[in-house]
Amino acid sequence: MCAEGFVQGVSAGSFTQSKKNKAYALQALHLLKKTPALASDRQQLWTAVMDGAQKQPNSQMEVIIALWREQLLHLNRLPDIRQDPA
User: Fold this and answer.
1) Residue 32: which residues within 8 A CB-CB, separation 6 or more?
2) Are 28 and 20 in contact (CB under 8 A)?
3) Cα(44)–Cα(37) distance, rounded to whole angstroms?
4) FRET pair for 36, CA 20 to 30 Å: which of 11, 42, 63, 72?
5) What is the pLDDT of residues 13-55, one digit of tens each?
6) DSSP letter string over 4-19?
7) Entry pTM
């Protein structure tokens, strides 16, 4: 999210080598934008992001939900396409 400039007060840049975590975060943002109620259940959000894949979370959704609740995300910069983890 930071790399793409979605977090207020953080300039876009290179912050991680993890393409999967970046894709998970972008997918979570798409889902929250479409269904804000997912912010109340991090496990449900993670399950939706994983779309059937079995993978243990690593606090990714906690960070996204915290930023979402504090309204620190630039959702107007979110691309319209879904980016699947590869």
Assistant:
1) 38, 39, 45, 64, 65, 68
2) no
3) 10
4) 11
5) 787 777 888 889 889 999 999 999 999 999 999 999 999 899 9
6) TT-BTT-------S-H
7) 0.80
